[in-house]
Amino acid sequence: MFRLRKEEMKKEGVVPDIQTMAEDIIEQAIRARDLGDTKKYMELKTQAEKMAQNVHFGQVVTLEQVKKIMDIAYPIARLSCVCRRRSRGFKDDENFFCMGIGVGMYKWERWPESYRGGVHFMTPEEAKAWLEQVNEAGLVHTFWVFGTPYIGGICNCEYPACIGIRNRLDYGISMLVKGEYVALLDRDMCTGCGLCVERCQFRAINIERTMLKAQINPFRCFGCGLCEKKCKHNAIKLVERESLAGLAQEW
Amino acid sequence: MVRFEISIDHSRCSDPLGCGICLKICPTAVFVARPSQMFKFRETPGALYRIKPLYASMCTGCMECAVKCPAGAVRVERSNVR
Question: Does B67 reach chain A within 8 Å, measured CB to CB?
Fold first, then answer.
């Protein structure tokens, strides 16, 4: 794939024909769905998801999991987030919400004009401290592969600025898969304070007003663990998705 | 379902990333800014980005973008496609 792309990029100003990110297919799928062409939408959706699985897909991870990645990955750098630039017009110098890991970072350090805003290298300790801040702010950690199975990016996502969450929630295209965990609520411990509701980026939590208890829809839950971190009453527990028969296939 | 047809006059919208007002104010984030050209070993400059109403099916017709656009480049019309 890389070799093909290199050939394509040899001439200055040429628009590459190879769709590594399936962006054009997703765009056509969205258009087909908007126009009510369900058959075409399903075809394009399957094609885009297959391409994503081979080249560029993401998965939701918890803070603990992403810290483990920080221990084994090298080098680690902060990057300007391409989704927020695209969707919300963030300026590059105020847009360092994502992380890149692996040797690709050296390429961008060597040729800063090849990546907007450049890279800011971090030690694993700095990275962990920063990820804790980001978690406190309420962003969802995800990892992204660049050519399966190589993980090249850690993103901190939110709806609707992030393309993965947007395509998944609004258009049913699974470039982003759910995490290994799912949040379950202990209703005896829950006081209905509502702190968890504002933390959810996936519309999975609401408060049942008559019972004054939270309700988590496990089929919508992506298992990011943001609600669990904020709960003061320890009412939310993360359990492994595969330990629940009804959710084991819900990715 | 496409309720509104949104068109951008690219000759008026000269610096989409530098301005970005439509991207920021849209309540359902209908617009995206996309590079219109790619270059070897360097990023596309901001002036070559183009605004596109990719998620037009989520447009509510609030007209904020058409009113707030400093260049008057956004037009929102009722769509015939249903």
Answer: no
